[in-house]
Design the sequence.
């Protein structure tokens, strides 16, 4: 249970609208919102309270770290998952002391720890709970935000009205959006899983079912690990446009290698050339490609901002699938499951497009166009699971608070539809192109401006930056009020 939770209060009686006054309100209490709160309260000991609006029971978990399935593991070592980057071992030390490693000896691979994501969620939730009453959790969904005087009023699903000088949006991941034809054909089928993150979603899938997974990235890997741990032994086919599978971690870890910012890179093609030549250089020095990609990730924001919009578009269109499978790596335990199933012939990953889907009773018929071989095949399955990841492109349509902000002209999607249009400092840009000094975005929805912003190390640094911006905005706001 988090700091001070209003959750147990439930909805206010119909006739009473609960009013809360605060200097800072954070909408979304996943990891990003939690990290902004934690760092802002640390930077500003004089700040009496921050209000955080989050429907989930515990703060800090969000989509990724609410995962109840122990087969879902963090995909970078624990030493890279600190809430406090200045103390890189903060989570790893907590892990060693918490007893979580004794409870899950498989978490340890050599010198590195890859515990389940739920354990990481418990670490963040505990750090937040330690903030006590300085962090007030309103357990509800934010449905509207309007400007009022020099601040905002956030209205939530339980009727609470929160008046705040500064609002930070940290709402991030949208629900997955299955291909329409699949949804239309399979809606109501007992083994059609349109949201793989839903608890107990795999319950109806039987031991020998033939399973089709739409998508071949990290979500697919998690699904295979879950099914395998539940005793599933049937055949699994995972398909995606290119049929690429996320890579694992290197046998030996090296420091990030190369430089991709000086001189700055102006085109997507030049970036590919520079990466290729740097990988060749690294290999001559006895290092694997991993450390080169690590450097690209570290310099990702600067690389992204140096590219003109058309080149960013080109990068997304042509290189994103390759970037994703090299940049997001699979936890070794999950990689071992995938390798074992591929070797046993119970998992195949193929580049293919879905041409048609139909059902006869509970049997699902799928018409696939193979990308490499060019031909079409018809295959039958007992279950279909959507693993296309969060649908960030439609987040303005699916998240009520973003839809409301857009309707009020207070926010708009970024040009590449990766999330919310923001300045490099994190200020939301309104419909008229003006940056709003007291409305900020933390987390992956700032990617259109910031570039690479998904993995936890990047998200943590971004949250700290937004906490600094919020602290400055507080000072400016106070100075304006005093004038
Ligand atoms: C499945 C998955 C696994 C991952 N695993 C790893 C990993 O192992 N290692 C790593 O480095 N990175 C990982 N990542 C990436 C990374 O850690 C996440 O991107 C990061 O946690 C983002 O957190 P967030 O708080 O911005 O977003 P979210 O987790 O999406 O949290 C947003 C929160 O906002 C709330 N919210 C949404 N709308 C509203 C509203 N209208 N009102 C109030 N609240 C609202 C939601 O309930 C949610 O809790 C993973 C990402 C995913 C999706």
Sequence:
């Amino acid at each position: 249970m988090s700091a001070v939770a209003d959750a147990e209060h439930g909805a206010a009686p119909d006739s009473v609208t609960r009013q809360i006054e605060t200097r800072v309100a954070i909408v979304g209490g996943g990891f990003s919102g939690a990290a902004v709160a934690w760092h802002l309260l640390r930077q500003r000991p004089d700040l009496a309270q921050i209000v955080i609006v989050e429907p989930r029971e515990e703060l800090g978990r969000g989509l990724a770290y609410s995962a109840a399935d122990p087969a879902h593991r963090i995909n970078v070592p624990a030493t890279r998952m600190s809430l406090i980057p200045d103390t890189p071992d903060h989570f790893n030390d907590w892990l060693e002391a918490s007893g979580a490693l004794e409870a899950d000896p498989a978490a340890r691979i050599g010198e590195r720890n890859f515990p389940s994501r739920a354990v990481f969620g418990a670490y963040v939730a505990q750090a937040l709970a330690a903030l006590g009453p300085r962090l007030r959790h309103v357990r509800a969904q934010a449905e509207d935000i309007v400007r009022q005087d020099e601040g905002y009023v956030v209205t939530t699903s339980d009727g609470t009205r929160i008046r705040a000088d500064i609002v930070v949006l940290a709402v991030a991941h949208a629900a997955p959006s299955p291909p329409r034809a699949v949804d239309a054909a399979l809606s109501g089928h007992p083994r059609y899983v349109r949201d793989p993150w839903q608890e107990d979603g795999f319950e109806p899938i039987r031991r020998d079912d033939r399973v089709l997974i739409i998508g071949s990235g990290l979500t697919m890997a998690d699904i295979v690990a879950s099914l395998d741990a539940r005793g599933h032994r049937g055949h699994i086919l995972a398909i995606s446009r290119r049929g690429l599978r996320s890579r694992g971690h290197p046998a030996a870890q090296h420091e990030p290698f190369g430089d991709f910012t000086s001189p700055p890179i102006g085109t997507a093609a030049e970036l590919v050339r520079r990466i290729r030549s740097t990988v060749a250089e690294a290999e001559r020095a006895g290092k694997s490609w991993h450390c080169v990609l690590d450097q690209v990730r570290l310099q990702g924001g600067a690389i992204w901002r140096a590219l003109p919009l058309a080149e960013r578009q080109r990068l997304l269109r042509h290189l994103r699938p390759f970037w994703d499978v090299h940049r997001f790596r699979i936890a070794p335990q999950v990689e071992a499951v995938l390798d074992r199933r591929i070797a046993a012939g119970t998992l195949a990953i193929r580049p293919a497009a879905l041409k048609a889907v139909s059902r006869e009773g509970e049997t699902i018929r799928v018409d696939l166009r193979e990308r490499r071989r060019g031909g079409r095949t018809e295959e039958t399955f007992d279950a279909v699971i959507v693993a296309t990841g969060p649908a960030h492109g439609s987040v303005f349509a699916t998240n009520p608070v973003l839809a409301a902000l857009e309707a009020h002209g207070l926010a708009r999607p970024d040009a590449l539809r990766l999330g919310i249009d923001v300045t490099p400092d994190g200020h939301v840009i309104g419909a008229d192109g003006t940056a709003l000094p007291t409305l900020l975005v933390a987390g992956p929805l700032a990617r259109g401006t910031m570039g690479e912003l998904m993995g936890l190390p990047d998200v943590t640094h971004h949250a700290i930056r937004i906490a600094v911006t919020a602290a400055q905005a507080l000072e400016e706001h106070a100075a304006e009020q005093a004038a």
About this structure: Residues 166 and 470 are 7 Å apart (CA to CA). The chain has three domains: 3-72+116-175+392-482, 180-247+330-386, 268-327. The longest strand covers residues 347-360.
